[in-house]
């Protein structure tokens, strides 16, 4: 079962795909950002998945909120974002996983994701920096007829969660 809320996903090929929300939605600058965890995920590029003993696939579900001002319909996927992440563990000061989340499509819709290694059960902190579509070259109209405001400044989002999560 795949969740409509997709942000962080644990990967085990022997378990059917399941998802667990690991933090509440963050509403900022017209965007809704939701983190979750999934299990049993396979990608068309297997090398993109961590082969570590305890992997997690970080997945960001980023959609337009009702106050989004750049022409995206409410609940629409926001393309061309650049999303970096850092994952740390509370009782392991030297543990840190970091990287970029990449666009991924599935039956629930597009989102951003990346595979990272976990350091066993415990309390984790996830930080994401979401840069606007201009980071990947998306332009915007600026004329009076159809123009939209400047893109938002990079958004820093933080969540704390317990791993393993309860998947549904």
How would you characterize this protein structure?
- It is a single chain.
- With 168 residues, the chain is mainly β.
- It is 0% helix and 48% strand.
- It is built from no helices and ten strands.
- Strands 1, 2, 3, 4, 5, 6, 7, 8, 9 and 10 form a ten-stranded antiparallel sheet that branches.
- Strand 6 (82-89) and strand 7 (92-106) form a beta hairpin.
- The protein is elongated and about 55 Å long.
Could you outline the blueprint of secondary structure elements for this entry?
Layout: E1 8-10, E2 18-21, E3 26-28, E4 31-39, E5 55-64, E6 82-89, E7 92-106, E8 109-117, E9 122-131, E10 155-163
Antiparallel strand pairs: 1-5, 2-4, 3-4, 4-5, 5-8, 6-7, 6-9, 7-8, 9-10
Sketch the major β-sheet: 10 strands, antiparallel
Give the helices and strands as they follow along the chain.
EEEEEEEEEE
Using the CA coordinates, give the radius of gyration.
16 Å
- Please mark out the parts with pLDDT under 50 across 5 or more consecutive residues, or reply none: 1-16
- Average pLDDT figure: 83
Derived structural class:
mainly beta
Gap between N and C termini: 8 Å
User: Helix proportion of residues, in percent?
Assistant: under 10%
**Into which percentage range does the β-strand content fall?**
over 45%
Shape: elongated
